[in-house]
């Protein structure tokens, strides 16, 4: 059995229909929104509308707030202090949400789990907490393949 694959995507440079098309093209069947607050100034990218759009394209939508970046860490990412931001987020999620990471790792290890993508705003995964989540999941799931869309 091949190792599981986790996709990641940021919608910063995508319109809602482009996001859905990108996910479908990659074979993603489930999106886990890892924004702390799943609201957006961009039309169609807030939780309810995004969930409806993805559902209309055959993609399941889930919001997991516990994997979001809390407000006190977000400015570190925005300023470009990547190493400090990554370290602060890693410490936060390992202390506050280890069960959420364990649960997601178990889901990804299950062959019956639909192809899954982590979703956040940032286009570049290197400057986003979803990269840290992927790394933490890879520690729990050796061999996990991570594909940034």
How would you summarize this macromolecular structure in one to three sentences?
The protein contains 6 helices and 5 strands. With 149 residues, it is α/β, with parallel strands linked by helices.
Cα-atom radius of gyration: 14 Å
| Shape verdict | globular
- Major sheet, described briefly? 5 strands, parallel
How many individual β-strands?
A: 5
Order of helices and strands: EHEHEHHHEHE
Strand order of the largest sheet: 3-2-4-1-5
Please state roughly what percent of the residues sit in beta strands, choosing from under 5%, 5-15%, 15-25%, 25-35%, 35-45% or over 45%.
15-25%
Distance N to C terminus: 23 Å
Q: What is the overall number of helices?
A: 6
Approximately how much helix is present in the residues? 40-55%
Average the pLDDT over all residues and give the rounded result: 95
Which class of secondary structure composition applies to the elements?
A: alpha/beta
Q: Which runs of at least 5 residues are low in confidence (pLDDT < 50)?
A: none
Write the layout of secondary structure elements.
Elements (H helix, E strand, L loop, with lengths): L4 E6 L5 H11 L3 E4 L13 H10 L3 E4 L10 H6 L2 H15 L1 H12 L6 E5 L8 H12 L4 E4 L1
Parallel strand pairs: 1-4, 1-5, 2-3, 2-4
Helix pairs in contact: 4-6, 5-6
